[in-house]
Amino acid sequence: MIKNILEFFRVIGELRFIVPLLTYKWPEPDDSASLAHTFQESVDKFGEKDFIYFEDQTWTYSQTNEAANILANKLVKEGIVHSDRVVLLMENRPEFVISILALNKIGAIGVLINTSLTGTPLIHCINASDSKKCIVGAELASSIEDVLEEINVKDKTNLYWVADGKSYSCPEWASDLNNLLNKSETDTPKEIENVTAKDTAFYIFTSGTTGVPKAALFPNTKIVAASTNITRGGYRMNENDCMYNCLPLYHSTGLMLGLCACVHVGASTFIRRKFSASSFWKEAQKFNTTAFVYVGELCRYLSFQEPCEEEKNNPISKMVGNGLRPDLWDCFRNRFGVDRICEIYGASEGNGMFMNLLNKDQTIGMTNVDLTLLEYDVAEDKLKTDENGKYIEVKEHQPGLALVKIGPNAVYNGYTDKKASEEKVISNVFEDGDRWFNTGDLIKTMDVGFSLGRKHYQFVDRVGDTFRWKSENVSTNEVAEILNTFDQVNMANVFGVKVPQSEGRAGMVAFNCAINDFKWNEFSEFVSNKLPSYAQPVFIRIIEELETTGTFKLKKNDLREEAYHLDKVSDDNIFVKKPGENSYVPLDKDFYEVIMNGSAGF
To answer: Phi and psi of 589, rounded to 5°?
Structure first.
């Protein structure tokens, strides 16, 4: 009884943070609202305050602003105008932040490329964006060099190379950006006056459910509104906070929930190129990071670490992110002492967001969008209908496919590809002409106790042709299309399989081949060269015949169920790429036991 009363007053206390969000007025389309405008406000208030901590560097808000202005003015002189696209391929570092700020100041669109991409996917992302310039970090220049003859940004004057320490020298095919800058042009470019809320700020590529990566549109209004919601309702942070951010800034989680949130309130941020579980708590203590932006996989890695002194009395009191599975929640709440865990849910291209505003356990929280959960036939990979052909809403606490109604309060920006955008929309769900965004995810309602009368939800799983691995969405169709180009693969059936003590699903492919003559070394090299690490199949099953549906779709459900389990696929051959190795080897019983006891290290 006392516990319930305390919970009642705790939730009531949350209202002082929630009410302002409910009354928050989104920027009008023609308002002067953008990341650049928000950043300028923070510079005016906190100019001499530390903004970025990175390796042995410290950048104040004013220093970052001057560098962004210098680059912005250079781009204007080079002919970059409002709505022009500029590719940015660079690891997390201050120059990445400076580049996106510079582009936003002049109303140009930053085409943010996944740093893992090489070969065909990289070519597609660059060419599909129709960009005029490409800013590439020295650390990733080899990826551009490998595809130089196939991308549409070829001229040396349009390829800007950005130094990264003293380990690299500028290649002949690029221009050293630092040598081109006029360091005296530190004034804010006048072009910022023409930047509005409705303008597109970034293209952020997502695998989607089918085909090659697609560019999701991120208008300024989405960035400004998301930053407001996340800082006030999520972190509850201000200028005195410092955020630990080791997520890639080319993704919406690291960029919007991380960097943009800090800019919004004038907070500091420690950024890291890549996540390191062994360094995490030492760095959290060193930089006094009070907030943490996460994805579930990072949390799982941290939970696997042996206890250390630095994790005790650590400064992190609040964290916002997505993918924190229920079994990890208690670890962060109890072992690491994180008081506030705000799980959010949403899609880069989507029109709605869920947020755990009330700091409840194991929930993605609540939403203010018009939502429906419909019964889904996972085996047939389609929505169920009743005898009248109508979609069926699920019962309380049962998983269903989440659809978000498209309307004035839930605008669907979609992709640059209009056809791909429409493929994510389901119409006439309940009445003629209604339009709903298909999230592609199963979620369910859950009982969280006293919650101000609002429904709370929990993520269940992804459906269709996409699975998540290494914090990335993997399109099975895209991977299969690439694998099918190997001369000994007739038809690849790609799917995700669960691995004990690993977040998401590992990639697995089944195909038929003459196993005794199969060129394993060449195939392993092909996979490494053609696919980013997160999309490379971990398991291979050589199968006698691939089954298809009546409409010739490859059947996946039995394969997913049987996976790599030796007791279920004894008549076939299973191969595995072990962690840290580049070639596939037969899966034997000893390593299978290592996998099943959760110590394989995937």
So the answer is: -65, -35
d(CA 493, CA 510) in angstroms, rounded, equals 5
Summarize the confidence of residues 305-310 as an average pLDDT.
94
The DSSP secondary-structure symbol of 229 reads: H
d(C-alpha 562, C-alpha 584), whole Å:
19
Average pLDDT estimate for 27-33: 93
Give the chain's mean pLDDT. 90
Q: Where are the beta strands (DSSP E) in 35-158?
A: 50-54, 57-60, 85-89, 109-112, 133-137
End-to-end CA distance of the chain, in Å? Answer: 45
Q: Are the C-beta atoms of 105 and 36 separated by less than 8 Å? A: yes
Gap between the Cα atoms of 123 and 142, Å rounded: 13
Instruction: HSE, CB side, 13 Å, CA atoms: give it for residue 62.
Output: 6
* 452-489: b (≥16 Cβ within 10 Å) or e: eeeebbbbeebbbbbbbbbbbbbbbbbbbbbbeebeeb
Return the SS3 of 462. Answer: strand
Summarised one tens digit per residue, pLDDT across range 480-495 is 878 988 888 878 889 9
Domain extents in the chain? 25-347, 357-462, 466-596
Q: Residue 1: pLDDT above 80? A: no
Instruction: Answer yes or no: are the C-beta atoms of 501 and 469 closer than 8 Å.
Output: no
pLDDT digits (tens, 9 = 90+) for 185-210: 999 999 999 999 999 999 998 754 44
CB contact at 8 A, 62 and 69: no
Q: 25-347: CATH homologous superfamily?
A: ANL, N-terminal domain (3.40.50.12780)
Nearest-angstrom CA–CA distance, 111 and 587: 41
Whole-angstrom distance, CA of residue 109 vs CA of residue 348: 16
Per residue in 242-280, pLDDT (tens digit) is: 999 999 999 999 999 999 999 999 999 999 999 999 999
May I ask the CATH architecture of the domain 466-596?
2-Layer Sandwich (3.30)
Write the single-letter amino acid at 416: T
Of 584, 492, 570, which is closest to residue 538 (Cα–Cα)?
584
Alpha carbon distance 84, 109 (integer Å): 6
* CA 561-563-569 angle, 5° bins: 100
Do residues 60 and 49 touch, judged by C-beta distance below 8 A? yes
Helix 277-286 / helix 296-304 crossing angle, nearest 10 deg: 100
Helix ranges, 511-556 (H)? 520-530
CA distance 282 to 303: 15
Question: Which of 527, 459, 541 is closest to 497 using CA atoms?
Answer: 541
Cβ atoms of residues 113 and 139 within 8 Å: no
Neighbours of 525 (CB within 10 A): 13
pLDDT at 346: 87
> What would you report as the CA-atom Rg of the chain, rounded to the nearest whole angstrom?
24
Say if CB 122 and CB 147 are below 8 A apart.
Answer: yes
CATH class of 357-462: mainly beta
User: How far is residue 238's CA from residue 143's CA, in Å, rounded to a whole number?
Assistant: 39
Place of tokens 């004035």: 408
